Amino acid sequence: MADLLNIGLSGLAASKTQLSITGHNISNVNTPGFSRQDAAQATRSPQFSGAGYIGTGTSLVEVRRSYSEFLTSQVRSSTALSSDVQAYKSQIDQLDSLLAGSTTGITPALQSFFSAMQTAAEDPSNIPARQLVLAEAEGVARRFNTVYDRLSEQNTFINKQMSAVTDQINRLAGSIGSLNEAITKASANGQTPNDLLDARDEAVRQLSTYIGVTVVPQDDNSFNLFIGSGQPLVVGNSVARLEVVPGAGDPNRAEVQFVSGGSRQGITTQITGGEIGGLIRYREEVLDTTLNSLGRLALSLNEQVNTQLGEGLDLKGNVGTALFGDYNHPDLAALRANAFSTNKSSANASLSITNTSYLTTSDYKLEFDGNSYQARRLSDGALMNVSNQNGVLTFTDSQGRDQGFSVSVSGLPDSGDGFLLQPTRRGASDIKAVLDQPDQLAFAAPVRSEASVQNKGTGVIGQPDLVSASSSPIDLVAIQAGLPQTLQFNGTGFVDDAGNPVDGLTRVPAGDFKTGEVNTYELTLSPGNTVRFTVSGRPEANDSFTLAFNQNGVSDNRNALKLVDLQTKQTVGVDPSSDVSGMTFTDGYGQLVERVGTLTAQARLDGEATSAILKQATDSRDSLSAVNLDEEAANLIKFEQYYNASAQIIQVARSLFDTLLSTFR
To answer: Which PANTHER family match (predicted)?
Structure first.
């Protein structure tokens, strides 16, 4: 009877535990990361009798969770990848809409500016037309400013989001460290604390949404977590932390430091995966390049327009005034070169633009080793050749290509000091229209030509074109010193009115005058100031032509037409060491929009793909580990029946015992 009673009691206890486990599963059906549990049963050791071994009941061996490290690892890695792509995509979608928008992009403003310039060139003395040019110039400058502001706001958001994400990473890392300690203690009895393991797995999965992690299980059931290039975020119950700090070279650009004990290590470029990885990847691949591309375009527009205006005359006969502000103002030049916060000395640097056509869209790192300067282009890591002329540094790459800027360092840097050089980063922010007087727009050319009314031949002289100027704005005194010039035809070429060769006059190409064809000549008015003109037709001997200063060129639009031509002139990204052409303003911006559009389309495809991969990984894990309410309901009925049956065994044992007792009464 005692054996039968024990057997019934063992079944009763086992069924009760099974019911408790089933109830636990049901109550946690919506608990994130919970893995379905079940109990493993085994028979008790049998007892020997004369007839053989007789069973003594059942016992619970362990409570197991339905778990696969492989499937869980897939969910973690898929989560990190999907969060990375989604963070990247959310930012680039905004940028794509901004750059390609008809009301927010740069192209419509550029087209309006040059359209207004074309209208003014058709009637150069028309003041309202000139006023429209000023208004559109202010409009295109503001459009650059506005786009820069939106990108700057995006950079600020990324900085704040990196800080918020880092706080979440540190919180979860601390939780995982605590769970590691609890799991290690609970596992000391040889059994696995399933709920603690599930809680830790869920914490690691949540951590994967913020940053990519590598999980290394240990023998004591704890997890070691590594990030970046192997930095130990969690080792047992020891937890390091991440901190977001202002960039060493650019305080407006947040960087991530790994802090362990008293040591710090910058790991921004080593972080991959998760939301913070996607934000950093977007900033490096898209945002920085976009800011630099816009800045280069704004600087090029600024220089080309101002330079061309400086080669013309306004309605009062004065040299043209700059339409846009001076991008090499000392205050602006100082903002382009940032001393690293780790520098030992107080040396400062300023960066001046020397030629906007040669600028790239890269930042540069300048370092001093105690004797000389070394520079590296950060976009491709290429080393630059640094030339130091009286404290002014200029830069060329390995092919001898000028980088379009120079740097002046004030003070003596210490060995190891460095500077972050950003030639174009603020270009779109700094451009502004400064001219407010329409009559000061220099639409006229400084030199004019005319044929003598007494000429007998049919020779025609074209209006001269200033092809080189020693300075911008032009030196009127130097140009006027070489004027007027009288050219007299002698049958084979031109001489002065005394019959002597004209100083500085050359035919291009060299040779005698060819009657009936277009003959091109260049005349040097003063050192560095040369005009080019043509003579065609059939001039006769002693016919004369005059080049003079264009004192009252009110209706002259030659310089205005050159300004219009800037729209189709390839002035952006020119390679000075080869025949590779640059890009126009529109093409330069179009290339930027196309690149961002391509990356946006790729990000959308990646988003769909990674979401599908994450769903597949999650479904695979859930198929094994998730709670199925239908199955648990069936288990409730099954284990209830087992419980009732075990109770019936006890009832039978009691009846037998009562019967046995009654025989001795």
So the answer is: FLAGELLAR HOOK-ASSOCIATED PROTEIN 1
